[in-house]
Amino acid sequence: MKLFNNAVSALVVAIIFLLIIPLPTFVLDLMFIINLALSFVILLTTLNIKEPLEFSIFPSLLLMTTLFRIALNVSSTRKILTNHGDAGAVIKTFGEFVVQGNVIVGFIIFLILVLVQFIVITKGSERVAEVSARFTLDAMPGKQMAIDADLNSGVIDEEQARKRRLDIQRSSDFFGSMDGATKFVKGDSILSIITTFVNLIGGFLVGMINGEGSMTELLQIYAISTVGDGLMSQIPSLIISVATGMIVTHSSSDFSLNDDVTKQFLSQPRVLMLASGAMACLSLLPGFPVVQVLTVSVFLFSMGLLLSRRVMPRVAAEETPQLTPSTELTSEAEFYRNIDNVYGLLNIEQVEMQFGYSLLPLVDAGNGGSFLDRVVMFRKQFAIEMGMVVPTVKLTDSGQLNPNQYAIRLKGEEVARGDILVDHFLALAPSESEDVIDGIETVDPAFGIPAKWISEDKKIKAEMSGYTLIDPVSVIITHLSEIIRRYAYELLNRQEVNNMIANLRKTNEAMVNDTIPNLVSVGDLQKVLCNLLRENVPVRDLETILETMADYAPTIKDIDMLTEYVRQALKRTISRRFAEAGQIKVITLDANVENLIMGAVKRTESGSYLALDTKTIQRIIASANQELSKIKDLVQNPIVLTSPIVRVYFKKLVDQFYPDTVVLSFNEVDGNTQIQALGAIAID
Prior knowledge:
Layout: H1 2-5, H2 7-18, H3 25-48, H4 58-82, H5 89-99, H6 103-153, H7 158-210, H8 215-249, H9 257-265, H10 269-282, H11 290-318, H12 325-335, H13 339-343, E1 351-355, H14 360-363, H15 371-386, E2 393-397, E3 405-410, E4 413-419, E5 424-428, E6 440-443, E7 450-455, H16 459-464, E8 468-470, H17 472-486, H18 488-491, H19 494-505, H20 509-515, H21 522-534, H22 542-552, H23 559-569, H24 571-578, E9 583-589, H25 591-599, E10 601-604, E11 607-610, H26 614-631, E12 639-642, H27 644-655, E13 662-665, E14 674-681
Parallel strand pairs: 1-2, 9-12, 9-14, 12-13
Antiparallel strand pairs: 1-3, 3-4, 5-7, 5-8, 6-7, 10-11
Helix pairs in contact: 2-4, 3-4, 3-8, 4-7, 4-8, 5-8, 6-7, 6-8, 7-8, 10-11, 15-17, 21-23, 22-23
């Protein structure tokens, strides 16, 4: 086996040496026969493969065979010029067979073969390879998206997805290589013409100088050698050119080209019978060879009749209906007759992103797009930060979106949409007064901040002016992350909660077994976790959450109150989450307002709710709006601090008007965190 590991390298080196080292005539004959046999092997291989990638070494093989033919041309030319036209039995036999005493006829046949290869086969193959390379490259984003969609939906696994991506990349590389490799054959054809004239003219001059015979004798000797050498070079080259055309025009199939031609060309017996009738009509033309025409006509009719008798029983046995719209409806009805297939239509994706055509390069890993990697890193960061694993994001292209648009869908419904300019940067001005860069006015899709799309040539000027520049992928990722943070509580389903419990069981099995389901049900745990995520409180400390629920769940059935106790147990996490440099800047709630809220709480068997009159609500919200407006330039996220018993009710009240307001209770602030009051919400 070690001997064959470097066989290809040794073969290439040997071909190079053939350009330099003179070969005996018997070795040259052997090389010509090997070259001819190799060309037949390559042609038959292209006819029997099912898809071009099964013969992916063809471009490299094309170069090697071209180099081999050139080396043989050089060796044969050396022999013709130095050995009185004798370059071996193969060249002599081909030359005498084709020339047959007429040099002009031999050269005409040779030129016809060269022109057929150069103008018809090679030119066509070159064009097909060029178009295939371009179409394959253009189709890569859509194919990558389809693979990602199948992977996200569970149709294929990671290994199958990796293989499909590799096949797409190999297909692109293959047709790109074929686009260039066809130039080898084209150059080989040109070289054959040049070599032919060199052999004929050079041999004739050498013979005249050496006095090897008369002009007629020399012309006959060197014409035979020249034509024979040209044919021995051109016939393998023509066969390789045909193989090139076969491989670039053969689309992927479950069968070889032989099988496809046999099945498709002979699948219509009626066509053969009609062709037979058309050929029979030609025999009526005066002077047309009747015997030959009728022979072909009878042959076609017999083939059509034979095939029709073979097809009819098979059709009857398989009861294959005609391909009509009604047939398609019947097949579809048959498919959905199985109720499990109907249930398959009900599946929806937790998180889905749709992209317009212009944005596909951003998400296509094969084209260098980093979007998928950024989603993976965001999932990791979100798990560390919030303690929840983001569901798989399904990526699809959509013809319903504008080319520069993307849409984010949760549970089958669109929740956000944005516009992206691929070759631009999103620029955020340091302030309105310093907005000095020209660009396309827009709004940051994640935060609604006025911004501009600026081109690459303005990047340096914008950075020097203090602008914040965001690349298109980061804009989309930021928008996606904000949407997931906002709706994380909707994405936390029972299955994910069970996954979190299973993960905790690995480190604290006793606590999990004692708590679930004896003291805390999975449903109650899910509700508490969703309440925490709704207010952007991390749920990573699941052990503390379960222990707190186990302490209070037997006596407290109100999920909101149970959540409040859990929040108090997570005070270090909450303080770290909302404090800056160990300090929380807050607005407090006046004692009169708290008493007013507590007096309006109504309790029922299913829970409690706030029953305030409209006028009082308006006064509280007006005061809150006034205080929040005062501090909007001092703090990024406004925080209202209340007593523990009031927090949950005030949060529900203020959410109707200011949903991003953070409401904390005194018991949720860690003792090491300093509280700075910037105002108070009060009413007269």
